[in-house]
Amino acid sequence: MERLQKVLAHSGVASRRKSEELIAKGRVAVNGQVVRDMGIKVGVKDRIEVDGVPIARESHVYYAFYKPRGVISAVTDDKKRKVVTDFFTDVPERIFPVGRLDYDTTGLLLMTNDGDFSYKLTHPKHEVPKTYVAKVKGVVYPKDLLPFKKGIMIKRRRTAPARFNVLSVDHEKKTSIVELVIHEGRNHQVKEMFHAVGFPVMKLKREKFGDLTLAGLRPGEYRKLTKKEIQDLVG
């Protein structure tokens, strides 16, 4: 059983807030009866109508997607740039990205139509680790990144402690490859963390989400998650 406004939002009728407005205005009926109670819960067998039109109830779907560079982590873009859902034209469900990756960042992005799943994976309190590999300007020594372990101030907010590993250093080109593991998801966080310690990011890729990896995927490709993978991600 799920709250009515949540079911409306998942079905694509409107956002959760707008769905609550529809309920308050008496425009939603369950099994032929108009409801105005925000706390009402409905099951899969309940018939839900908005303005007399039955809503479509979608089954939850879950995908791992290898996001290429130059793609927006959104379902639409007012500037007509390519968005992640452009790669899912054969998927009938109305899916959306779990969190986001920057336009020029590549790597693992999860796609779903399950709002609870998305919340559990993106809210910091659940501490789901996300592993990035960054190519940065400068020769990095482990001591340079020690502030990451305690958290650093970015836009007057301290980041949560993060783990890192210097994978390689090119002394001739003065660049370094660093692995960083965080469990937050602020906009541009990884780039801003490296910038704060003096190593601007040149390239960035998300390698893992929890224990899930990009294995078997090439840029622009996706696959369904297994039941075990879904369970492992949400605990």
Automatic annotation (TrEMBL):
Keyword RNA-binding: yes
GO term, biological process aspect, one: enzyme-directed rRNA pseudouridine synthesis
The enzyme's E.C. designation: 5.4.99.-
Organism: Vagococcus acidifermentans
Similarity-based family: Belongs to the pseudouridine synthase RsuA family.
InterPro entries: PsdUridine_s_RsuA/RluB/E/F_cat, PsdUridine_synth_cat_dom_sf, PsdUridine_synth_RsuA/RluA, PsdUridine_synth_RsuA/RluB/E/F, PsdUridine_synth_RsuA/RluB_CS, RsuA_PseudoU_synthase, S4_RNA-bd, S4_RNA-bd_sf
Keywords: Isomerase, RNA-binding
UniProt-recorded name of the protein: Pseudouridine synthase
Keyword Metal-binding: no
Gene3D superfamilies in the record: Alpha-L RNA-binding motif (3.30.70.1560), Pseudouridine synthase I, catalytic domain, N-terminal subdomain (3.30.70.580), RNA-binding S4 domain (3.10.290.10)
Single GO MF descriptor: rRNA pseudouridine synthase activity
A cellular component term, taken from the record's GO annotations: cytosol
